[in-house]
Structures are given as structure tokens and as C-alpha cells.
Amino acid sequence: MEEESKTKTLFEQMNVGVLKYLENKRGVCKLELEPRRPAERPNILAWEQKNTVFLPEDLKSFFMTSDGFQLTWCVKIENGPIPVGKMYLNSISKMLKFGGSTNNTLVNPSLADLDADSDNEDETSGTEKPTFDCRCKIFELDPCDGYGKVCLVYKENKTGGTDPKIEVWFLDRALRWHYIAESFTAYYRLMIMHLGLPQWQYAFTDIGLCQQAKQWFNMYAPLRLELDAEIGMPGISRSESSTSTTQIDVGKVFKGKSDKKKPVPAQTQSQQSQSLRKKPTVASAKVGQQPGLKTSSSASQLAGKK
User: Fold this and answer.
1) What is the average per-residue pLDDT within 48-71?
2) What residues contact residue 202 under an 8 Å CB cut-off, 6+ apart?
3) Distance CA 245, CA 238 (A)
4) Which of 232, 254, 260, 302 is 20 to 30 A from 138 via CA?
């Protein structure tokens, strides 16, 4: 019990109050934080030896607190809860390496063949993009449910030092790189601030957020959407911030059974039926007042006067 309480306290400190924030948001339900035990030190050392790199200190401290991370939450609507938010990080055993050259590239092309046609510099950050060849070592932090990959990238240090430069990048489905953060800690904070909303990493790309993602942002993180627009995130423009994006009627989204139209009282129904039965008053005499039209009675009176 003491160990669980300690772990919960550590998670609350790491998550900077995001659990309490989501609990107080309207419509949020099934807020689940998967309990994870700390990774064992021998497993961390074995991973470093296998991949011939050292984990950055902030990521190593994270693994020694929790072997991976998963926080999910749903939104309750009239048809039932639907999954919306997900914050996820691989465990040490699932943080696999990918990319690099193969032994038989003449027959089977590898990811390294894409580097010749790719740009060398990220347009937004001005940072050199990762490569799939031996110049970089790339490890998967988050598979992103198939819409991309968040990667921990080890680059060659071109300043003369022996320690590699470690950054966090997002690889979209077109195998294009997009810079996200300079360290694991910075990425973790961004993940928390974006509440794990659907495909939030695309705010850092020139592709941008889809319309559905923008609507979820407007409901649960409108200030974050405006801030991303102000600091010039490539995927969000000022015209797409919460001040101008189509707003969602929260009352309709979370409409429950009690919000449906109330039945009309019987007395009111009878009054409405009586009013409908009354025939509208039609001034038929007015027809004869139109130019060129006269009623038969008027015609006979005129004939008598003659």
C-alpha cells in the first residue's frame, strides 16, 4: 500500500495536475491511469548495451519511476462514452530501434534510400532533420496508434564532442520528419499540456490538425490552441484558433435524457387544437375592391341606378 501511494504521489507531481483538471471538465469520463512499476536497473543497462547508446538522464529517471506511461479518457455523449484522449509512452522493452541500412540494399531498398530526396533542414525550427542511415539512431517512444511515430533521435555531435545530440521528432505516415522538442522532458510537458488530444502532434507539422481534432481542442484546450497559433506552430494559423474555428454547442453534445423536449400539457394541447379549428376570417368583399373586379351585387345596384 505504501508503494502504491508513493507511486500515485509521483504521478501527480509528474502530471502537473492534469488528472484533477480533466476530472472537472464537463463530459469527461473513464479517466484511467494505467499503473506501471518502475523499470529494473538491469533491464535499462541491457537496453543501453544492446543499442550502444546511453539513455538521457531525464528519460532514465522516468523509467526508474515508471516503465512506460498510459493515460486515457473518454467523453460521455448521448450515445455513450467515446475514447478521445490518450497519453502514451513505450516501456523500455518496447522502445525499439528502426531505420538504418540493410546488408542487401541492392535487392531490398531500405529507409536510408529516402535520405537522398529529403530536405536536410526542418523549415520551422531550422534544425537538421534525422536520417535513416548510420548517422542517426532512432528509437520509438510512441507508435501513435498508426498515424505516425514519436521518436527519440540520437544525432552525431558536429561541434566536436563525443556525446550525441538527443532530440524528439515526429515521423508522419509519409515518412517526413517534424521537430517537436529538444529533450524528453520538454516533450513530456507538451504531451501533458495538449491533454493527449487526438493527433495533437500534427500541430507541429505543415499538415496541421484535422477539423475534428480542432473541435476537441476548442472544447477542452482552447487556450493551448491559441498559444500554438501565437508561437507560430506550422499546423495552426491564427485564423484557425478557437476565436474563429467553428464552435461546438456543448449543450447539444452532452444532451442527456433530461434535456429532451418536455411534453406539452394536456390543457395547452386542447387550447392549441381549438385555435386551429377556428376558421380564419376572410374579407370576401375586398375582392370586389381590386381594380377591374366587381361583385355581382354591386353590378346589379349600378344597373338599377341607370
Assistant:
1) 94
2) 148, 172, 208, 209, 210, 213, 235
3) 10
4) 232
* CA-derived radius of gyration, the chain: 33
Residue range 124-179, pLDDT digits in tens: 667 889 988 888 999 999 999 999 999 999 998 777 667 889 999 999 999 999 99
Distance CA 9, CA 7 (A): 5
Average pLDDT, the chain: 76
Confidence of residue 285 (pLDDT cuts 50, 70, 90): very low
Cβ-count burial 253-273 (b if 16+ within 10 Å, e if not): eeeeeeeeeeeeeeeeeeeee
Q: What is the pLDDT of residue 287?
A: 40
Which has more confidence, 55 or 222? 55
Residue 117, phi-psi category: left (phi > 0), alpha (psi -120 to 50), beta (remainder):
alpha
CA distance 296 to 159: 108
Contact present, 180 and 170 (Cβ < 8 Å)? yes
- Give the whole-angstrom CA distance, residue 141 versus residue 221: 24
Give residues with Cβ within 8 angstroms of 230, minimum separation 6: 238
- Give the Cα separation of 155 and 301 in Å (integer): 108
Pull the grid cell for residue 124.
520551422
Amino acid at position 115, single letter: D
User: In this model, does residue 29 exceed pLDDT 90?
Assistant: yes
Whole-number pLDDT of residue 82: 93
